[in-house]
Amino acid sequence: MKLACECLTECFLRKECETVTTPLIEKLNITSSVSIVIISISLMLFGGFVMTRITKRLKLPNVTAYIVAGILMGPYCLNLIPVGLIERMDFIADIALAFIAFSTGEFFRFSTLKKSGVKVLLITFLEACLASIAVFIATHYVLGLDMVFSVVLAALASATAPASTMMTIRQTHAKGDFVDTLLQVVALDDVVGLVAYSIAISIALASMTGNFQAQNVLRPIIMNLFAFALGGVFGLILKFLLHKRSTDNRLIVSIALLFAFCGICALMGVSSLLGCMSMSMIYINTSDDERLFKQLNYFSPPLLLLFFVRSGLNFDLGAIFSSSDHIGSTSLLAVGVVYFVTRILGKYIGAFLGCLLAGKNKKVRNNLGLALIPQAGVAIGLAAMGARTLGGAMGDALETIILASSVLYELIGPACAKLSLYLSGSYSNRLDDIVTETVKCDGHEPENEVERLIRQIQAIQKELPAHNDPFLEDEQAYDEAAYEHYALTGYPQVSYQNTRRKADIWTL
Fold it and tell me: How far is C-alpha 121 from the geometric centre of its chain's CA atoms?
């Protein structure tokens, strides 16, 4: 076992000696490569967790906490994580993005897409494309940046972070046409972003090699389409393999297939994001099994934490105030500010025009763009992949700009999403607005405040959906897994009669 660990860590630390040590490691006199890797990963996990305790009080998303934790622990601040280890952990981006893309595919139900029709597609296309066009014009023609860099940066501008928006919707219990439109748009937004990135990186590679021919541009696009189709095949295989499997084996098989698909895509030199999204889309539409996604959600948090912390570790604070000759004479700070502002304007104008053409009402039209501001997971992952593809100073500049702007987007994104929900009338803090049933007084005497409040509460209770399950969804998923396990061990089952539902419980 020890020999296996040493072989594994040797793969991570195949750099010069000075790149695999830090002042903390030297002070503690740690010489074992195995210890260095394990302790570093532990610091990354614990550092991300501790930072969430701070950001939680500030009502900021966890993504921001992870990135900030990585910046603080990185070589440009506290220097707690060896540079050699950071460089050798680039595969984490591929794995984390595979989980992100797979979870996104859950929302692509054919029945929902059929109902939405072309209206949502039109809105999504316009807001994503106008954001990309605005960024390209501002960076290439106004700032005079390199065309290759501007094309890739513009493609990344189309992506959105649905997590912040969906979290805000859950917190406010918002509903209505605005919310329905928003959820469909953010689900499709990342698909447009992935396609835009595939096209942009193809153009960039063809331009960098100087062999700008149609076949060189079309080949990566065709490869991405092939990966998308292959992902669908893997989705069918996943459905077949998970049939009547135990909870543990379902998780093992699904992760194994995800890793295998990522490895195949890496061999082909193509992004696995579209394929992973296709895999989950085919699986959910053929099996209607939401339980698998809940299981993966239990497994993925540490991976996502490591991914975002590592992104923060790569963030060069000094580089943001300097310029790169490989992209132009403008400082990265100025580029980041221009990117930040123009993307917001492009998203808002595009969403407004899309809603106008789709015939949406004024409240949806005026406020949808505000809810599309956040940008994090997919954009950061694509930036990491783009930096690896472009290489050198251009790749570093790309990742630095996206990381810096993502932190800003995540700071203002949830507030903008909540404001859009409020302005659109999707939720209200007033009790009179929540109650839709007319409250009338039975007698001639006017109601006092207490009587009126009681009537309102009773009216709200009538509108609440009946909860047949005594457990929360996450708790019920665990409950089912535990029941399955103990049923196999032969523990006695006790029938328990609930007032709403008959449930089986077990005694330990």
Answer: 20
Closest to 125 in 3D by CA, of 193, 200, 203:
193
**Which residue in 242, 259, 239 sits closest to 250, CA to CA?**
242
Residue given tokens 């009773």 in the structure block: 458
d(CA 54, CA 244): 43
Supply angle C-alpha 120, 123, 129, rounded to 5.
Answer: 135
Cα 258 off chain centre by:
17
166-170, 178-182, 266-270, 391-395: the lowest-pLDDT one: 166-170
Domain annotation for the chain: domains and CATH numbers: 2-87 (no CATH), 89-423 (1.20.1530.20), 431-463 (no CATH), 474-506 (no CATH)
The two tokens of residue 355 are 């809603």
Contact 160, 349 (CB under 8 A): no
Distances from the Cα of 212 to the Cα of 148, 160, 188, angstroms: 12, 30, 30
pLDDT band at 342 (very low <50, low <70, confident <90, very high): very high
Instruction: Give the lowest-confidence range in 117-131, 241-255, 310-324.
Output: 310-324
pTM: 0.69
Of 290, 305, 303, give the one whose Cα is nearest residue 474: 290
Structure tokens of 303?
């991976």
